[in-house]
Design brief:
The protein is an alpha/beta fold. Helix 4 links the parallel strand 3 and strand 4. The two termini are about 25 Å apart. About 40% of the residues are buried. The protein contains 14 helices and twelve strands. It has two domains: about 200 residues, Glycogen Phosphorylase B (Rossmann fold, 3-Layer(aba) Sandwich); about 170 residues, 3-Layer(aba) Sandwich (Rossmann fold), CATH 3.40.50.2000.
């Protein structure tokens, strides 16, 4: 079988990296020809990152759209085409509709993959010029044109099933072979406890939820807030360290954390999140504390393999407990890693992914109906 993946961006983009690129070598080992055409290169992704301004955003999305449209000239070579997300926000999904139309005409198996609630409007990015051209049915149009859909969690799958009968839930996974387990030992006298977060500039505003938490913790503990990959984050009275993200240093930076955090508000868009940073912490054996929003409630069993926290007081209490006990950090971190190995590793999920690519699940679904 020959498969063509159409990721929205390069390896620098976390969604593309974890939903597409990390699978390619594993698929090739099974005999599948797994090729890809990225929406934008590493260099252009860095040069025209959308958070830099309106001009950069226009170039960024324009290049992604152009590259996806050009893919229409090569899809005839492949048996299955996997479209990862939409390349344009808000507007009519012309690139994806064109590819689906051509793919349908020449008998290719078309699959759409998404791991965010892209059918909603992201609250703190809602007011953009593109909003005047907003197409509320942009995701539904593409879902209806595909032979199958891969959704990152049950919330996204429930939306997709309104437009496509063949929806598989494939969670965002971790290549556990890249993540050594944290080695626990005594901390050096006077060394701060490191509370860490990893993510993109667009998701850094979620960390504002924890400012009062960090300020209260800093009164009793020597803490350092380590931010990987976000823009400038300030928390008065608390020591904050910003580190640039890189693929080479991603895992080693996470391994320096004593506690990993994933705060989220309870909103429609956030319910579609697939818990990537949470899985990264857990894969590295780092105890995690997260908001009980969306898939976080499925990944974490409170007090067993991590902590869930709703209120400011609960965040303070649970992080404090972890800071005070290296043994608890090691135990929760170890059980978190076991959870990832069993349920959220690429090694565990690959058979399900192969079934979707080959259409085996579709055929079973049809048999059940008939």
């Amino acid at each position: 079988m020959k498969a063509l993946f159409l990721p929205t961006a390069s390896m620098n983009d976390p969604a593309s990296r974890y939903r597409v690129y990390q699978y390619l070598d594993y698929l090739r080992r099974t005999g599948i020809v797994a090729d890809y055409r990225a929406g934008i290169s590493d260099f252009m992704y860095t040069m025209f990152a959308p958070y830099k301004g309106l001009f950069h955003k226009a170039v960024f999305f324009g290049l992604r759209a152009l590259n996806r449209i050009l893919a229409v000239f090569i899809i005839w070579r492949y048996d299955v085409i996997i479209i990862q997300r939409l390349v344009l926000p808000h507007v009519y999904p012309f690139p994806e509709m064109l590819i689906c139309m051509v793919g349908n005409m020449i008998g290719k198996r078309m699959i759409f993959d998404f791991d965010d609630a892209i059918f909603t409007t992201y609250a703190h990015r809602a007011k953009t010029p593109a909003e005047r051209f907003h197409d509320p049915d942009r995701v539904a149009r593409v879902l209806a044109r595909c032979d199958a859909v891969i959704a990152g969690n049950a919330y996204l799958a429930s939306y997709a099933r309104a437009y496509n009968a063949h929806v598989a839930i494939i969670p965002t996974t971790i290549d556990i072979s890249r993540y050594p387990a944290k080695k626990y030992g005594g901390k050096h006298a006077g060394a701060p406890y490191i509370i860490g977060w990893i993510g993109t500039p667009s998701s850094l505003p979620y960390m504002n939820i924890l400012k009062p938490v960090f300020q209260e913790l800093a009164k009793k503990h020597r803490i350092l807030i380590r931010i990987i990959g976000g823009l400038r984050y300030q928390c008065p009275g608390v020591h904050v360290e910003q580190l640039p993200w890189s693929l080479q240093d991603e895992v080693s930076h996470i391994l320096t954390f004593d506690v990993g955090v994933m705060p989220l508000p309870e909103d429609e868009y956030e319910r579609g999140k697939c818990g990537l940073k949470l899985l990264q912490y857990m894969a590295a054996g780092i105890p995690a504390v997260a908001s009980p929003v969306g898939v976080n409630k499925d990944i974490i069993r409170d007090w067993s393999n991590g902590f869930l926290a709703c209120s400011t007081e609960e965040w303070i209490m649970k992080i404090s407990i972890l800071l005070q006990s290296a043994q608890l950090r090691m135990e929760l971190g170890g059980r978190g890693r076991e959870t990832v190995e069993r349920k959220y590793s690429i090694q565990a999920i690959l058979p399900d992914f192969l079934e979707v690519l080959r259409g085996l699940k579709d055929r079973r679904d049809r048999s059940a109906v008939n």
